[in-house]
Automatic annotation (TrEMBL):
Pfam families: OmpH (PF03938). The keyword Signal applies. Gene3D superfamilies: Skp domain. Residues 60-86 are annotated as: Disordered. Keywords: Signal. One of its GO terms (molecular function) is unfolded protein binding. InterPro entries: Chaperone_Skp (IPR005632), Skp_dom_sf (IPR024930). One of its GO terms (biological process) is protein stabilization. This is OmpH family outer membrane protein. Residues 61-70, 77-86 have a biased composition (Basic and acidic residues). Residues 1-18 form the signal peptide.
Length: 166
């Protein structure tokens, strides 16, 4: 019985070293994916469109505000209140448009990136399963140290798997 226990104690640490660990830089892989580049371009184009619309609205508000400042002294009280209410309404519309645009961009980004992220995760899982890895860590997650002798960089294998998934 003692021999079996001693044998287990000797071979147990060796079995730990037989496990395979891998690491991958998912961010670098994703930024090289054509579908990510296309999605990023579409989001940036929509962002530019929203910025241009907001800038036009702000310029219109600025113009009307300057007109009001120049002519407010000659306006009667009713006209002054109407103009101030109109300016306030324009300002609120700009704020609401900004918030709506932010939400639309977040949703667009989520909708465009989710399938790309899923594809990348599936490729990592396929490489992990095929290679018999116990863990695959993502260096993009901010892991401060990964042993290059105990963990294999599988970034190229994941890229190859992504090409197969097309």
């Amino acid at each position: 019985m003692k021999k079996i226990i001693i044998m287990l104690m000797v071979f147990a640490p060796l079995s730990l070293f037989a496990q395979k660990f891998g690491h991958v830089d998912s961010q670098a892989i994703m930024q090289g994916m054509p579908e990510f580049i296309q999605a990023r371009g579409e989001v940036e184009a929509q962002t530019k469109k929203y910025e241009d619309e907001l800038q036009a609205m702000q310029q219109e508000l600025q113009r009307k505000s300057e007109e009001y400042d120049k002519s407010s002294s000659t306006m009667n009280e009713t006209k002054r209140q109407e103009t101030e209410a109109e300016l306030q309404k324009m300002y609120q519309k700009i704020q609401q448009t900004f918030q709506d645009n932010q939400q639309a961009l977040a949703k667009m980004q989520q909708d465009k990136l989710q399938p790309i992220t899923n594809k990348l995760l599936n490729a990592i899982k396929n490489v992990g399963s095929a290679g018999g890895y116990v863990y695959i860590m993502d260096t993009a997650a901010g892991i401060p140290y990964i042993s290059q002798t105990l963990s294999k960089d599988i970034t190229t294998e994941v890229k190859a798997e992504l090409n197969k998934l097309k």
